[in-house]
Design a protein that fits this description.
heterodimer; A: 12 helices; B: alpha/beta; 2 domains; five-stranded parallel β-sheet; 9 helices
Chain lengths: 355, 272
């Protein structure tokens, strides 16, 4: 932000404050909670970190975000103070070098920052892991992700006309935080599969597209569920196909039960999806993807080598973030496509430090 | 009742934490090179960026602007590290970074160039016209004076060798217009300034037109040439003296943040 921007501003009334926020481009287009010093102080009370601590600076750039800036954005987003530890842990993930914020946040490819919270703190602050978890209605889900997006805009400068080159954008760029539901017996939650103790809560943050719904209602077959998921993952019209990308696979309750009844572990499912989603140059070509003379994907993110099976890896077992989520229904799951190959960006997990 | 707001601008603390801070941004650049200058190319891995940049380097060498060049290749999604930057600026007298042709890679190519500039090495960034707005945004973020921006038509990856050679020749001319060897500094006007000059002078052009005079502006090798021509029947009493006109143009551009060196402005005036 330019040096001339003042930190404290006095306004006549609430409407004038909103007008100021809209006028200065500080919102995502929706009204915000006015960030009074009192509200910011209450937000900061949820962490032991000092307001002036810098959570990180984007590699290769001049901009970063302080704890205080993050708290201001959290207030504006509508967060309660108890949400703030999730916000802070998300920022720490974004500034990890492997996340590569400098490359992905301003991409013309309309990248969203999607995060799944796993562990007991998610339920403690009321995050939604069930019905309509990607939709409206839950304050924690809606405002935590929004706090991040407001920070990306206001502190890091990724706004249209600024550093944000997003050609289309998508709805997940408003907010995209959700919680993992408790897996069926026999499966482990994500935090424990990543090596954290059951009492720890983690946030896993990835650069993604918006969620896409998978429909599988009638057959009850685990084989068909895996085929369906893999078929969606290797969709050649998405830039993730054949590029060893990260995927978030949110398995709905019915599908989870079918898979677990078949004796499949989560690790087996990830390995199966990684194999089944491999895609040949010919299949990419049939989907309209241009190839170069060596049958590689024509383009600048095509460094993933062709395997001995004559196929490109769409993902890898360790790059599939498999979680259980969603409400009961006819039989739905969701896939969230990653944005770019492993050498560009990776999902990052951080432990949430509860107050 | 007055409400006090705490806004999310906190650069004082970021500055204290070591984020880079630099001086006031300028819109003009003048590059002074020593004899036997070495050019460092930061090639960002986009398809045919290496071809275009190396062609520019060869041209500059042929025209004796530089004695030699070297290439630092990276992935489009990477920034150069601090140690890579230090190695580059130790060896190079001039840096050219590019070619930005997407959102992420344009911002990174720009910041790579700026980080070299901040170490005292003159730097150019090359991007495609579609992403010129991101070059400006990244430049504005740093607020560094002196980054020269050059633009080529989008895209680069699909272009023929002939097109690339022609663009390299054009870019070379632009760079040569902005550099001088061993102290003969030439004025240089960056491409985005060039694009906004007609707008900045619109009021003057309309005023001249109302008095019966046509005014055109052309950029050539970093210099702005303004031609004023009299239409039939125009009254000579309406025409201000050339010296006054030149001061007026310079003042209008300066007010728009586009101050030109005196040598960068040429005026062709009726009766001159």
């Amino acid at each position: 932000m330019p040096a001339s921007q003042e930190v404290f501003v006095d306004v006549e009334n609430h409407d004038a404050g909103l007008d100021l926020c809209f006028g200065r481009g500080l919102t995502d287009g929706l009204p915000v909670i006015l960030p009074t010093p009192e509200r910011v102080a209450a937000m900061l009370s949820a962490t032991a970190r000092r307001p002036g601590d810098v959570l990180g600076v984007v590699a290769g750039r001049a901009e970063g975000i302080s704890v205080e800036q993050a708290s201001v954005c959290a207030v504006m987003a509508g967060c309660l103070p108890e949400y703030f530890p999730v916000v802070l842990a998300t920022w720490e993930a974004i500034f990890e070098p492997a996340f590569n914020a400098g490359a992905v946040l301003g991409s013309s490819g309309s990248t969203a920052i999607t995060a799944v919270v796993s562990g007991p703190y998610a339920a403690a602050i009321g995050m939604n892991a069930g019905h309509n978890l990607f939709g409206p209605g839950n304050r924690a889900n809606a405002t935590i992700g929004r706090a991040i997006r407001l920070g990306v805009r206001n502190a890091l400068g990724y706004v249209t006309g600024g550093l944000d080159g997003s050609a289309f954008g998508n709805q997940a760029r408003y907010t995209a935080h959700f919680a993992e539901s408790t897996p069926p017996t026999g499966w482990l939650p994500l935090n424990q599969r990543l090596g954290y103790p059951p009492e720890a809560t983690t946030v896993t943050v990835a650069v993604t597209d918006a969620p896409r719904q998978m429909t599988h209602i009638r057959s009850g077959s685990p084989e068909n569920i895996l085929r369906m998921l893999a078929a969606a993952m290797r969709d050649p019209t998405h830039c993730a196909a054949g590029r060893e990308s990260t995927y978030i696979v949110a398995i709905g309750p019915e599908h989870a039960q079918i898979l677990i009844d078949a004796g499949l572990t989560q690790g087996e499912i990830c390995r199966s999806l990684a194999v089944r989603s491999r895609i040949s140059p010919e299949e990419l070509s049939r989907g309209g993807v241009p190839l170069n003379s060596d049958r590689g994907i024509l383009g600048d993110h095509s460094a993933v080598p062709l395997g001995e099976d004559g196929c490109f890896p769409t993902t890898a077992p360790e790059r599939i973030i498999l979680v259980t989520a969603g409400g009961t229904g006819a039989g739905w799951s969701q896939i969230i496509y990653g944005y770019a190959p492993a050498y560009v960006t990776s999902a990052i997990t951080k432990e949430i430090i509860a107050p | 009742m007055t409400i006090r707001l705490l806004l999310p601008f906190d650069e004082r603390r970021l500055r204290q934490a070591g984020a880079p801070q630099v001086g006031v941004q300028g819109e003009t650049a003048a590059v002074n090179l020593p004899h036997n200058a070495v050019l460092g190319l930061i090639v960002n891995g986009k398809t045919k960026a290496d071809v275009l940049l190396e062609a520019v380097a060869r041209n500059l060498k042929q025209r004796a602007v530089i004695a030699d060049y070297f290439m630092h290749s990276k992935k489009p999604s990477d920034s150069i590290s601090d140690s890579q930057r230090d190695a580059l600026v130790d060896r190079a007298d001039l840096v050219i970074s590019g070619v930005g042709d997407c959102g992420g890679c344009t911002a990174l190519s720009t910041s790579d160039a700026i980080r070299c500039l901040m170490k005292g090495v003159p730097a150019f960034v090359i991007a495609t016209t579609k992403f010129a707005f991101l070059v400006k945004a990244a430049d504005r973020e740093y607020g560094v004076a002196g980054l020269a921006r050059l633009f080529v038509e989008h895209p680069v990856w699909s272009r023929s060798d002939a097109w690339l050679e022609a663009e390299a020749a054009r870019l070379t001319d632009r760079i040569v217009a902005g550099v001088s060897v061993a102290g003969q500094c030439e004025p240089f006007v960056s491409a985005d300034v060039e694009a906004t000059i007609p707008d900045a002078l619109a009021d003057l052009r309309e005023g001249m037109s109302a008095d019966g005079y046509d005014m055109t502006s052309v950029m050539d090798e970093g210099r702005l040439t303004i031609s004023v021509t009299k239409r039939p029947g125009a009254g000579e009493a309406c025409l201000i003296p050339q010296e006054q006109f030149e001061r007026l143009v310079s003042g209008m551009l300066a007010n728009k943040g586009m101050a030109l060196a005196p040598e960068a402005l040429r005026v062709t005036y009726p009766g001159a």
